[in-house]
Amino acid sequence: MSTRIQQLSDRLQKAVGSKLQSNIVAFKEVTIEVAAKDLLSVCETLRDDQQFAFEQLIDVCGVDYSEYGSSEWGTEKSSSTGFSRGVDSGVNARLRFGDEPNYISSDRPRFAAVYHLLSITNNIRMRVRVYCEDEHAPIVPSVVDIWPSANWFEREAFDLFGIMFEGHPDLRRILTDYGFVGHPFRKDFPLIGHVEMRYDEEQKRVIYQPVSIEPRVLVPRVIREDAHVSEAVVPLTSEDN
After folding, report:
1. Could you give the CA distance from residue 31 to residue 12 in angstroms, rounded to a whole number?
2. What is the pTM of this model?
3. What is the 3-state secondary structure (H, E, C) of the chain?
4. Is 152 left (phi over 0), alpha (psi -120 to 50) or beta?
């Protein structure tokens, strides 16, 4: 473990320890969790305190933790034949229209916003995670006044996950079409959407109608401790070349 990374974690504990819900060093980075009510004060400290000097916000990501760790594939380890294909259509990797996802962890709120920070001064990165207390109306404070680059990032998280950023000056969709229904990165959103569009020659305009394709899932959700799949490598033979 890098000494600089551990020192950053220790300094955070001393400076804002009373507001930290967790302070973890993993994958050569520090990740802290704070409550929504403490987000702005902690972010101001991270930006203004020169021992941190996180003057740049790299990204704001939404996360939907429903069904976290659940899959119809055996995905903990890969093999020479890939991942096992799921055959149980009742699990939520094959959500149908109107289905509701189950929640694997009852002690973890469904939605979270994750902030990726960079200190150019100290040449170090970290991330901050804040959970939304209400899954039906997920709200966290906007950090636009602290890092102006959050403007479009927060709009993207709102568009894709439905997370609302209180105090944002112009919180509206940024990637999906006008009149789009739902938030496409939520786990309970159908993979092919709710509606499809086509151009109607008689009406001379684009019209929306219910989708006509049966939902199908082909890609597993994988949670692994690292990205190494060396155990799955099979030596090539002369027949393979």
Report:
1. 10
2. 0.74
3. CCHHHHHHHHHHHHHHHHHEEEEEEECCEEEEEECHHHHHHHHHHHHHCCCCCCCEEEEEEEEECCCCCCCCCCCCCCCCCCCCCCCCCCCHHHCCCCCCCCCCCCCCCCEEEEEEEEECCCCEEEEEEEECCCCCCCEEECCCCCCCCHHHHHHHHHHHHCCEEECCCCCCCCCCCCCCCCCCCCCCCCCCCCEEEEEECCCCEEEEEECCCCCCCCCCCCCCCCCCCHHHCCCCCCCCC
4. alpha
At position 115, the amino acid (one-letter code) is Y
Q: Print pLDDT tens along the chain (241 aa).
A: 578 999 999 999 999 999 999 999 988 899 999 999 999 999 999 999 999 999 999 999 999 988 776 655 445 555 555 544 444 444 444 455 455 555 555 577 899 999 999 999 999 999 999 999 998 999 999 999 999 999 999 999 999 999 999 999 999 999 987 778 889 898 888 777 777 778 889 999 888 787 776 655 555 555 555 555 444 444 444 454 4
CA atoms within 13 A on the CB side of 107: 0
In angstroms, the CA 178 to CA 210 distance is 17
89-93: list long-range contacts, CB under 8 Å, 24+ apart: 92/67, 92/187, 93/67, 93/217, 93/220, 93/221
Size of the chain in residues? 241
Nearest one of 190, 197, 192, 139 to 168, comparing CA atoms: 139
